Amino acid sequence: MTDDSASPSIDGNTVVAKSLSHLGVTHMFGVVGIPVTSLATRAMSLGIRFIAFHNEQSAGYAASAYGYLTGKPGILLTVSGPGCVHGLAGLSNAWANTWPMVMISGSCDQKDAGRGDFQELDQIEAVKAFSKLSEKAKDVREIPDCVSRVLDRAGSGRPGGCYLDLPSDVLRQRIGESEADEIVARVGKLNEHVTEARASEIESAVRILRKAERPLIVFGKGAAYSRAEDEIKKLVELTGIPFLPTPMGKGLLPDTHELSATAARSLAIGKCDVALVIGARLNWLLHFGEAPKWSKDVSFILVDVSEEEIALRKPHLGIVGDAKRVVGLLNREIKDDPFCLGKGNPWVEAISKKAKENGEKMELQLVKDVVPFNFLTPMRIIRDAILAVEGPSPVVVSEGANTMDVGRSVLVQKEPRTRLDAGTWGTMGVGLGYCIAAAVACPDRLVVAVEGDSGFGFSAMEVETLVRYDLSVVVIVFNNGGVYGGDRRSPEEISGPYKEDPAPTSFVPNAGYHKLIEAFGGKGYIVETPDELKSALSESFAARKPAVVNVIIDPFAGAESGRLQHKN
Fold it and tell me: Hey, which bits of 125-283 come out as E strands?
């Protein structure tokens, strides 16, 4: 042990910061206050960028999305008690979407636990439902190992959220700096956890695909997280099998690819006899893999990093492993004895024909300039503006009911991990947090949020955060006066002592959302015509500065929306 008699001492805050820096953390998100303000300051001094939010909920959503975009756990820092509870929104979002994240919260002095201390809460118990691993550092010397364990577990196996509890007395506790550096240095770098698929499983999968008459490849955000785009591209090109991405799998292969079945989704999933599902769960987004949406006779080959997921879904064949590695093995097996459906294959022709028909129907609707705006006209203009951006494709953040549903069908993804939306949980309020995460994780890309006014309202105050950090984010708000479009009540429903109150779905009509960002020095636009929208997008995209574009929509243009609706 190093002699610390002549060594300056440091506190627990600095030990945490040193541990995070040593383990490769470069960004943190959060809201500071007692007892973690010093932790954020020390982290910044060690080269970790700290993005300070107004609300832990948005900061947590940012941390979860950062984990997805970078493949490294996103770090959320909160105060104790209510701050930890607010942060649960982000931790649970990471759990639901299986993204790596670590929430770090301060807590009360250990000696005062159970006595009603300031913001006291049993935070280990509070996070239990959403945390893969929860650790409490009970002494300053335990901090480096605790930090290492939660970071390692967050990214291992099926990714998810972990929690680190830091009592106030541990953060104040002092230790000689040389001893601290020695303890931190002993903590190993994070390990890569790899489960290799068995050769027999790979051979079986290829044999099943080879014999299939109507095969389909489905891939999701798990494949995107795995960076499997090159391997999936090669698989599709080798075999000629049509593919269907889930909403956040869009862009792994361009939406414009000739084998994309997105515009023929109902036919593809309803008629395929074998579905190779890569990094996507057979949950509600894929109709649980059940009839009547799917054929009752379909055979699923499920590739997932989680053995538990495969056991739950009971596919015809399950392969446990990382999507990128497994698809690479499939390609190698196919290359030794190649097969390809070819453009003249009846199944490929049927998918292509249906996709073309549905695409043409959609374009007939999109080509019309409807004023007052419906959802389709501004969405077409936004699509064309995004496609015209030179260089790396913008990251699109899509949130809302009608806005997200229409955007999923109209907006075009050409590159991987360029679409963030409400995800597995259908979470509203993620928009601004996701924007900030994308701007930080992908600084070379413009970030474009396409938000409903209801979704925007959850985290609208974070436009100040955009301005404060001068982030390249343009937020487009579809303003139709409320949830689904304002007051949709029938005359019979407007009764009772509070009948003069606004409907539960109503907001202030024509609200000036663009003025909110102007209050902080950002640029705001209000648009009601195609030319005004084109001008606002051209100017804001070129400037790459924080902006809000307030798009006034006909309040009667929308419809109630819950589950994702796929009409094609």
Answer: 134-136, 161-167, 174-176, 215-219, 243-245, 274-278
Regions in the chain scoring below 50 on pLDDT: 1, 563-568
Whole-angstrom distance, CA of residue 85 vs CA of residue 74: 18
- pLDDT at position 485 is 79
Angle, CA 378 vertex, CA 376 and CA 381 arms, to 5°: 110
CB 227 within 8 A of CB 71: yes
Q: Which distant-in-sequence residues (6+ apart) come within 8 Å of 308 by Cβ?
A: 158
- The DSSP secondary-structure symbol of 395 reads E
Backbone angles phi, psi at 232, to 5 degrees: -70, -40
> Quick one: pLDDT at residue 123?
96
For position 116, what pLDDT does the model report? 86
Q: Check residue 545 and give its pLDDT.
A: 98
Cβ 474 vs Cβ 385: under 8 Å: no
Listed in order, strand segments (DSSP E) in 98-237 are: 101-107, 134-136, 161-167, 174-176, 215-219
Structure tokens at 262: 């997105």
Tell me the one-letter amino acid at 222: G
Kindly state the helix (H) or strand (E) to which residue 10 belongs, with its residue range: strand 9-11
Annotate 54-83 with DSSP letters as a single string. Answer: S-HHHHHHHHHHHHHHHSS-EEEEE-STHH
Order of strands, edge to edge, in the sheet holding 395-399?
A: 419-420, 395-399, 447-452, 473-479, 547-552, 523-527
Sequence-ordered list of residues with C-beta below 8 angstroms from that of 364, at least 6 positions apart, any chain: none
Place of tokens 């929509």: 553
pTM comes to 0.95
Per-residue model confidence (pLDDT) at position 561: 60
Give strand ranges (E) for 211-322: 215-219, 243-245, 274-278, 299-304, 317-320
Render 541-565 in DSSP notation, one character per residue.
HHHTS-EEEEEEB-TTS-----S--
CA distance 521 to 524: 9
Token pair for 391:
């260089």
Q: Which CB contacts under 8 angstroms, 24+ apart, belong to 19-23?
A: 19/143, 19/144, 19/147, 19/148, 19/184, 19/187, 20/46, 20/48, 20/75, 20/147, 21/46, 21/47, 21/48, 22/144, 22/184, 22/185, 22/187, 23/147, 23/148, 23/151, 23/187, 23/189, 23/190
Q: What is the pLDDT of residue 261?
A: 98
How far is Cα of residue 566 from the mean position of the Cα atoms in its chain?
21
Tokens describing residue 324: 């990128």
| Residue pointed to by tokens 């689904």 | 484
- Whole-angstrom Cα distance, residue 276 to residue 523? 46
Residue showing tokens 């007939």 = 364
pLDDT digits (tens, 9 = 90+) for 81-128: 999 999 999 999 999 999 999 999 999 999 988 888 888 899 999 999
